[in-house]
Amino acid sequence: MTDFASTRAAFHLPEGVTYLDGNSLGPMPHAAKARVAAMMQDEWSEMLITGWNKAGWYTQPRRVGDRIARLIGAGPGQVVMGDTLSIKVFQAVSAARALRPDRRVILSDNGNFPSDLYVAEGLARAVGAELRVVAPEEVEAAIDDHLAVLMITEVDYRTGRRHDMRSLTARAHDAGALTVWDLAHSAGAVDVDLTGADADFAVGCTYKYLNGGPGAPAFIWVHPRHGDAAQPILQGWMGHKSPFAFDLGYAPAPGIERMRVGTPPVIAMTALDAALDVWDDVNLSDLRARSVELTEAFIARVEAACPDLTLHSPRDPERRGSQVGFRHPQGYAVMQALIANGVIGDFRAPDVLRFGFAPLYNDLDDVERAVDTLSRILRDESWNNEQFHKQAAVT
């Protein structure tokens, strides 16, 4: 049984703040500060460039990748870290599409994170493919024999709607297509099982539920059956089979190593490595049960106390990730008022108040405080203050 009181104690949660935005940026693990300081003092300062060998910086992307593998239903040696999520999306989709050279269609849905769609649109234009975008509930019906790649974010960033990875992957395979799953809002929040779903490629970021810090590196997974066949368009020197031979021609490394691109961000990955320590004693079934408990309680209490809000997430917890959205015509101002009163969620256009529940550190007391504050702000209309309507650059 996972001790969630212990996992909560592993994070720095500012006094007086109820934090429900871990689906955008996780809080700082206490261990990260000391781990990064030690890396800078003992490794960077003293070892200088020899740290690539002595401190193992060069192999760090695979070591950290193996730690994430357990959380997403992958095996050892199947996940590698580095670069940003958009780069990993580009690599995965380009490699998957190249494995189906006689097909032109990349299919996604309009609940996908826009950056993924931008990447796919640019790739499609460059290689003469076609990006088709349908409503989330229309994805299965849109899979046909023209499809090369199904590119889906498992949990919708705005609504929290969770796609059925297993059934959609099976449907895509029946049509002769491959799948790319974005786990940005899944990894560390729900019970992902890539191997069990028989997926082909997956990518994800680590600064949300995995708590790696702002701009923490992304990860990519490739099913072993594609490991030595996948050929991403974006090829970098760290993905070469012999990077330090400095050959002018590219020869891909075997397996997942070919998905490396540039020099890894060692300091950021050190912070992420520290953040992953807390997962060593976490059972993913317990994690999912805790997530459902928190989101169910939040929905019930908000609907009882805040009649001005409309649920924007699936009511069935089986179809929902670990976040809940509610709609309000002045959602931005309401969220700013909430934040000013110590409850941090976020806003997604045009009118969605979004609340992320991270089972490692959120509890039912957070639910109660958040709903009490939200209902008070709506009752007294304190959100309708001029300062709360001024839109900041980051929402």
Account of the 3D structure:
- It is a single chain.
- The chain is an alpha/beta fold and 395 residues long.
- It folds into 2 domains: 135 residues, Aspartate Aminotransferase, domain 1; 249 residues, Type I PLP-dependent aspartate aminotransferase-like (Major domain) (Aspartate Aminotransferase, domain 2), CATH 3.40.640.
- The chain has 13 helices and 13 strands.
- Strands 2-8-7-6-5-3-4 form a 7-stranded mixed beta sheet, with helices on both faces. A 4-stranded antiparallel beta sheet has the order 9-10-13-12, with helices on one face. Strands 1-11 form a two-stranded parallel ribbon.
- Helix 9 links the parallel strand 6 and strand 7.
- Helix 2 runs antiparallel to helix 10, helix 4 packs parallel to helix 10 and helix 5 crosses helix 6.
- The longest helix is centred in the last third of the chain and has 22 residues.
- It is globular and about 70 Å long.
- It is an enzyme of class 3 (hydrolase).
- Homodimer.
- It comes from Paracoccus maritimus.
- This is Kynureninase.
- Pathway: Cofactor biosynthesis; NAD(+) biosynthesis; quinolinate from L-kynurenine: step 2/3; Amino-acid degradation; L-kynurenine degradation; L-alanine and anthranilate from L-kynurenine: step 1/1.
